[in-house]
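Fig. S4 source data, part A: sequence.
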Amino acid sequence: MDAYDYKITSTILDAGYYSEENLKFLYNRNVAFLTRYIPNQKIYKRILNISLNDIDDMKYHVMKDERILKIKRVNINEIAGMKIYAYICKDLTEANKLKFNTLSEFECENKDYKEIDEITKQLRKRGIFALLSSLKMPTNEILSVYYERTRLEQIFDFAINELDALPLRKHSEIAIRGHLMIVFMSTIAHVYMEKLMDKKKFN
């Protein structure tokens, strides 16, 4: 992007691109980021253990598309010296489903206390995930911003698979530019029509 003098101000990263090096690269260039936090990180585990103590408080209550969640924002200064925020999320709908599956196969009489304690700890973590961002956002908005990535992926998928954006089977630069322009305009028209249909509640 630097080569085209295009300034990026924000980005939503897939979890596969998570690394301290990538986050620091963006942070030092004042590019705001939002990504899924990888569960195997030591800092993640520490923050999660602290947050589990009060994550079920009503002050963290959030509704998102008929899902009931608890979302807690936590300050972090331990990742490469950056001042960033972790958003600990508990999807109660998903958590209850997972708990039911676990408990339906659980036989207390056949377990010792140590094993029961371990299962209890696992149940507390059901439905838990975390997002990481350089921005301090309201907890009731963070998921809408993050899931915009999914929406953009669907738009690109439409352009590639329905409008044949790729592969480029053109033999001149002018033809390639013309093809991409038509794909771009068609995609915009498609998204616009979808929004109009949503407003009128058409399927």
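Fig. S4 source data, part B ends here. Residues 152-199 form one domain.
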